[in-house]
C-alpha cells in the first residue's frame, strides 16, 4: 500500500510499518499530535454464534434461539479482518471490549464482546498482538480495554496481571512528572511500543493508562455524525494534551429502527457502512485542513476505501 507524498518528501512504502517511515521532524512530536488509524469494535469479526446474547438486554431471553443470535451477530459485526490483518494494514489503535462469561469453568479466561462474546479468548489475542509488536518494534500500538462486562475486583486484577505478563517490558508507562507524554523516538529508545488503556477504577498500575476519550456521532446518518464530531472537536480545542478518538463509525438505533438495517436482504449493513465511509473520509480531510489536530481516527471495516492511507496521509503537510 504505497503512498506518494510529493517530490522531496519521505514516502510510506508499506502501511505495515508506516510509523517508522514518518518524516524525521515528527519523531519527537507527542503521539497525541499524530494522526493514527484505529478500528472500532476491533474483535467483532470473531463473534461466536453459539455465545449467549450479552446485549441488548431486550434480547437476552431469546439466546436459546439461533436466529436471534444470528441477528445480533449481523448487527454487531463491524470488522471483517483479523487483528493481525488490521495491524498489517496499518491500524494502530484497537477498541477492545471485555467480558467474563457467567459460569465459565475457567475463571481466569476472558473474551471480547459486542452483542455476543468472541470465540477467541483475550489472552490468545494479546499474545498475537505481542508477537506482531516484537516483529515491528517501531510501530506504536494503542490498546483500549473497556466495558468489562460481568467483572468484579478479583477478575480485574487477574486480567491486569495477564496484560503485564504478556507485554512485559514493551508496556509504555502512563504520563507522570518523571515520564512525559511519549513520542515515537522516546518509545523507540526505551523499546516500549505498546500502550494499554484500561478504562476502569481498578487500574492503579503505572504501566496501564486511563480511559481514552472517544467522540462519536451516535447516528446512522453521516451528516449527523460529521456535525456532532465537528462540535465535539471544536469544544475540545487544540490545547488538550492527551489521546482522543474521532469515531467515524455508524451507530445502529437501539429501538425497532434497527430492523431496517439487519433484516433488509437487498442492502446489508456492511454495504451501508461502505457507502458512508468515502463521504466521512472527505469530511475528515476537510476538517483536518482547518484544525490539524485529529489524533486517533477510528472506523468500521478498516481495510475499505483507503481508510488507513487517508489517515496516515494527514501526517504530511497538505
Automatic annotation (TrEMBL):
Pfam families: PI-PLC_X
GO BP terms, alphabetized: lipid metabolic process
Gene Ontology molecular-function annotations: phosphoric diester hydrolase activity
UniProt domain Phosphatidylinositol-specific phospholipase C X: residue ranges: 25-198
Matching InterPro entries: PI-PLC_domain, PLC-like_Pdiesterase_TIM-brl, PLipase_C_PInositol-sp_X_dom
Top-level lineage group: Eukaryota
SMART domains: PLCXc
Name of protein: PI-PLC X domain-containing protein 1-like
Amino acid at each position: 500500500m504505497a503512498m506518494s507524498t510529493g517530490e522531496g518528501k519521505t514516502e510510506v512504502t508499506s502501511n505495515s510499518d508506516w510509523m517508522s517511515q514518518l518524516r524525521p521532524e515528527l519523531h519527537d512530536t507527542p503521539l497525541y499530535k499524530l494522526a493514527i488509524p484505529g478500528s472500532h469494535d476491533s474483535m467483532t469479526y470473531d463473534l461466536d454464534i453459539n455465545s449467549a446474547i450479552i446485549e441488548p438486554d431486550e434480547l437476552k431471553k431469546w439466546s436459546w434461539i439461533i436466529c436471534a443470535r444470528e441477528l445480533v451477530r449481523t448487527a454487531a459485526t463491524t470488522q471483517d479482518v483479523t487483528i493481525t490483518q488490521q495491524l498489517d494494514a496499518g491500524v494502530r489503535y484497537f477498541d477492545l471490549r471485555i467480558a467474563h462469561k457467567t459460569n465459565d469453568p475457567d475463571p481466569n479466561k476472558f473474551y471480547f464482546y459486542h452483542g455476543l462474546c468472541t470465540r477467541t479468548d483475550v489472552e490468545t489475542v494479546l499474545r498475537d498482538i505481542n508477537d506482531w509488536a516484537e516483529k515491528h518494534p517501531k510501530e506504536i500500538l494503542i490498546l483500549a480495554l473497556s466495558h468489562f462486562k460481568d467483572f468484579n475486583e478479583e477478575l480485574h486484577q487477574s486480567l491486569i496481571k495477564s496484560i503485564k505478563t504478556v507485554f512485559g517490558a514493551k508496556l509504555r508507562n502512563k504520563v507522570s512528572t518523571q515520564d512525559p507524554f511519549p513520542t515515537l523516538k522516546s518509545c523507540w529508545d526505551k523499546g516500549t511500543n505498546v500502550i494499554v488503556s484500561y478504562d476502569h477504577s481498578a487500574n492503579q498500575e503505572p504501566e496501564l493508562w486511563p480511559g481514552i476519550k472517544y467522540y462519536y456521532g451516535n447516528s446512522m446518518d453521516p451528516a449527523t455524525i460529521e456535525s456532532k464530531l465537528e462540535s465535539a472537536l471544536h469544544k475540545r480545542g487544540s490545547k488538550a494534551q492527551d489521546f482522543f478518538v474521532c469515531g467515524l463509525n455508524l451507530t445502529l438505533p437501539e429501538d425497532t429502527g434497527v430492523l431496517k438495517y439487519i433484516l433488509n436482504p437487498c442492502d446489508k449493513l456492511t454495504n451501508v457502512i461502505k457507502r458512508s465511509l468515502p463521504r466521512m473520509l472527505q469530511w475528515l480531510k476537510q476538517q483536518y485542513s482547518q484544525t490539524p489536530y485529529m489524533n486517533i481516527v477510528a472506523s468500521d471495516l478498516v481495510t475499505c476505501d483507503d481508510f488507513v492511507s487517508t489517515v496516515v496521509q494527514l501526517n504530511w503537510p497538505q
